[in-house]
Write a structure and sequence with these properties.
heterodimer; A: 56% helix; B: 489 residues; alpha/beta; FAD/NAD(P)-binding domain; eight-stranded mixed beta sheet; Sulfide: quinone oxidoreductase (chain B); oxidoreductase activity (chain B)
Chain lengths: 54, 489
């Protein structure tokens, strides 16, 4: 089983003060249904920015 | 008949030339001078560098495309500009040297009515001892700046995988190779694609992956960082980047000026003035950029390079180059028309224009070594600027010399950026980000300098799909296939 991201934190190291995603957040990143929804949302957001820039 | 000469066939120059050819029609001439025979979709070089794409997937021959568009294509590099002409001719001209097979070394003077300088950068490997010689990549590190470099990077990368499969631990060091580098995003993409491929190959546990960069904080990206709305907070790109680095178990060194590269080792100086060394088995370090070294001469032959170009070799345009200290900087310092202040028929776009100052806050070590990212001018802004400049010139040719110039300031422009963090139709991820405006405007948007309604970022498979679609979309557009003008820059 893959290690949880927080296991990569080293006490008082470079990354001690950052946040790490939990298993649910990581699962959502490759969940096809959720990502399809995000695909639509991100595309719309990007098109708005592109439109504002021309 | 007017003649427009475009120096450079990269994203900005290609966009400018193809739109100008369409708008001007056959009544006027568009000439493109570029030393390469192929067009390269540079963002996908990252995937060539890890073996997920071939060089052929990211390049195509320019000659047939320019032939179709009615553009006069000269495979050559520009040497100098005579914006006042010479003593024997009052017409301005550019001197070029051919690079095509059989014509190497031959020179020609091309007269112009309007000139667009879109040469892009010189990859200044020579600025860091051991990183390379002049503009040539050295033997100790790899690069993903060109398709050929990326192919070479992949060959070396595959060797490390074989070594790890035999039980030999490998250390990867990816980032920037000088205190004044730009393009942190490309290195960011490469390190996470490397990490993703190592996992896929089943050798991640045998690899130590480390980032080295001139950014004063992780996630600066040369734009002074950005803030994006997430879960009700305006989250800085520092948190965003540190979180990803920690999740993927990638350590980092920041605020670093790499001052020497040896076989298997880099030497660096940090912002606190301390010196350090880092060993590696595989290293990809982005070189600093400089102007390509174009010279400029007056009518009497005297050297006026310092009038036309800034000391770093980039062309001066309508920017405020005397803004001074960071505290005085304004969004309005940034150019909007990209017209040379001395010669009205000279324009620069893409990386070729001289920015007024960095976007990130300038910093230096106690030893006086400047360590801060220089401003990125690639991708979406580069294409938009190229199109705006082409529009201005076409209007002046078709409507008269007093036609108003089109504006495309990076201070009023957003950028959509998709940074790959691993390729795969269902396993890939990418950071999809937008930033608005590119140049922070602290008067208009106090605090973060940007509109957080239009500045966002998230990591996921959707970003990878977008990155993949953009790859095909922009190659389609660059090849001038059906409907190419409908695809935004």
């Amino acid at each position: 089983m893959e290690k949880k991201p927080e296991h990569n934190i080293k006490a008082y190291g470079n990354n001690f003060t950052t946040m790490t995603p939990g298993p649910f957040a990581i699962k959502l990143r490759t969940c096809k249904i959720w990502q399809f929804i995000r695909f639509i949302v991100i595309n719309i957001k990007m098109l708005v920015v592109v439109r504002k820039s021309h | 008949m007017a003649r427009l000469v475009v120096l450079g066939g990269g994203v900005s120059g290609h966009t400018a030339a193809t739109f100008a050819a369409k708008w001007l029609g056959s009544a006027h001439e568009v000439v493109v001078v570029t030393p390469n025979s192929k067009w390269n979709w540079i963002p996908s070089n990252i995937w060539v560098g890890v073996g997920e794409m071939s060089k052929e997937d990211v390049t195509f021959d320019l000659a047939p495309v320019y032939s179709k568009a009615g553009i006069n294509f000269k495979q050559a590099k520009a040497l100098s500009i005579n914006p006042e002409g010479s003593e024997s001719s009052g017409k301005p001209f550019v001197t070029i040297e051919f690079t095509s097979k059989g014509n190497e070394g031959k020179t020609e003077n091309i007269e112009y009515d309007y000139l667009i300088n879109a040469t892009g950068p010189k990859l200044n490997f020579g600025a860091t001892p051991g990183l390379g010689e002049g503009s040539e990549l050295g033997e100790f590190t790899v690069s993903v700046c060109t398709a050929d470099h990326a192919s070479h990077a992949n060959e070396e990368f595959q060797k490390t995988i074989q070594k790890m499969k035999k039980g030999e631990r490998q250390k990867f060091l990816i980032g920037t190779g000088h205190g004044l580098c730009t393009c942190q995003g490309a290195a960011f993409e490469y390190i996470f694609n490397i990490e993703h491929e190592l996992k896929k190959a089943g050798v991640r546990d045998m690899a130590d992956v480390k980032w080295i960069s001139n950014e004063s904080f992780l996630g600066d990206f040369g734009v002074g960082g950005l803030h994006m709305k997430s879960m009700g907070f305006a989250v800085s790109s520092k948190i965003f980047a540190e979180s990803l680095f920690t999740e993927r178990n990638v350590d980092w060194i920041i605020g670093a000026h790499v001052n020497k590269v040896e076989k298997g080792k880099v030497h660096y100086e940090l912002l606190d003035g301390s010196m350090g060394e880092e060993e590696f088995d595989f290293s990809m370090l982005i070189p600093p950029f400089a102007g390509v070294g174009l010279k400029a001469f007056a009518k009497d032959g005297s050297d006026i390079t310092s009038t036309v170009f800034a000391p770093n070799g980039f062309m001066k345009v309508d920017a405020n180059y005397s803004a001074g200290a960071y505290e005085n900087w304004k969004a309005s310092d940034w150019p909007s028309t990209y017209q040379n202040p001395t010669y009205g028929n000279l324009f620069a776009c893409g990386i070729a224009f001289a920015p007024p100052h960095p976007i990130s806050k300038p910093m230096s070590s106690p030893n006086g070594t400047p360590i801060n990212p220089t401003p990125p001018r690639t991708g979406m802004p580069s294409g938009i600027i190229g199109k705006a400049v082409a529009h201005s010139i076409c209007d002046r040719i078709l409507k008269g010399e007093n036609a108003p110039l089109h504006e495309a300031s990076m201070a009023h422009m957003g950028a959509a950026c998709v940074a790959s963090a691993g390729k795969g139709v269902f396993t890939g991820t990418a950071a999809a980000m937008t930033i608005y405006p590119v140049i922070p405007d602290f008067d208009k948007y106090p605090g973060t300098g940007r509109d957080t309604d239009y500045t966002f970022g998230e990591i996921g498979l959707a970003g990878h799909w977008i990155k993949h679609i953009l790859h095909h979309l922009f190659l389609w557009k660059a090849k001038l296939k059906a409907g190419w003008t409908l695809i935004p820059e």
